[in-house]
Specification:
Blueprint: E1 20-21, H1 24-33, E2 37-41, H2 49-59, E3 65-67, H3 72-75, E4 82-84, H4 87-94, E5 110-114, H5 118-131, E6 135-138, E7 149-150, H6 156-168
Parallel strand pairs: 1-7, 2-3, 2-5, 3-4, 5-6, 6-7
Helix pairs in contact: 1-6, 2-6, 4-5
Length: about 170
């Protein structure tokens, strides 16, 4: 088992409500029990073909995908029905309980993040944390203090191992 709960104080400021560090097996179970999860993918997945493969594996588990930045280019023609949207616009929509979702099937309850720049995602997660009741799960390589649950700060090879374990537990 990959321990992703260590190393959470780097680049973090402590506030009233902090993310709880989570191991990949628990994160996978959280997603598998979610009624309506959404995977939000950022363009940082393009930095490593293995991250693209992990993203596709997660999507093939039946989780809808919102592609932000230019991450959609990695998912086109791969059998993934990803919808393109700007991450800040998506955060605004997620805050609206009456929003029908990217597919018109209703609101999401658990939002999963992978492949974003830390400083962009931290702001998005701050808004979601403070103005919604959504559960947010960051399976990023860096600890995301404003998520509900987050992996700790991981080396790239450990992050890939953690993602494998996460996928196995969905």
């Amino acid at each position: 088992m990959v321990d992703t709960t260590k190393n959470t104080q780097i680049y973090s400021t402590w506030g009233r409500k902090m993310a709880k560090p989570v191991n990949p097996n628990v994160a996978g179970k959280v997603i598998s029990k979610a009624k309506r999860p959404l995977l939000v993918v950022g363009s940082e997945i393009l930095m490593d073909e293995k991250l693209v493969e992990k993203t596709i594996s997660i999507a093939k588990k039946g989780i809808p995908v919102a592609a932000t930045g230019h991450s959609i280019t990695a998912l086109m023609n791969k059998g993934i029905d990803a919808k393109y949207i700007n991450v800040h616009s998506l955060a605004t929509f997620l805050g609206d309980a009456k929003w029908g979702g990217l597919d018109g099937q209703g609101s999401y309850d658990t939002i999963l993040f992978l492949g974003h720049k830390k400083y962009y995602l931290d702001q998005v997660l701050s808004g979601l944390k403070n103005f919604t009741d959504l559960k947010t799960l960051a399976i990023e390589r860096h600890f995301m203090q404003n998520a509900t649950l987050s992996f700790g700060n991981l080396r790239p090879e450990v992050h890939l191992d953690a993602l494998d374990e996460f996928i196995d537990n969905i």
